[in-house]
Sequence to fold (168 residues):
Amino acid sequence: MTISMYQASVPVFLRMLDNLVAILEKGAAHAEAKKIDPAVLVNARLYPDMFPFSRQIQIATDVAAGGAARLSGMEPPKTPDTEATFAELIARVRKTIEYIKTFKPAQIDGSESRQVTLKVRDVMMTFDGQTFLLNRVLPNVYFHITTAYDILRHNGVELGKKDFLGKF
Fold:
């Protein structure tokens, strides 16, 4: 059995981003129920030298959208990182979901050997499509969603493994 590049990317991104929306909604509800200023959670970090919660969401959405775009041979959309509330972060994730839904299998399938070049900080990096997806995009999407989950969980939001994995 084989799995296509589309199957290994777009449905995975959509599932994890849908789960992220639910996690964000639980975070917002927790702040309201516990009378916590939502900005405290949005700006929370696991450690002082790590990005805050809001940045974890921004990176996860950028990586997923950029991954789909680059695998299809397109330039990813530019999204300003201005979200400062749960509502704005939820809207960003939902907008990313809608963007990723526009990709069709024919745009991404066969991209295993497509050259993908991107600038990371000040370094230009080039990958073949399969290496890009498996070793850069998917690990980054999971890392930043996991870190966002961990920040909320660390701050008392009642989340469990089912929230991260979503419904089957």
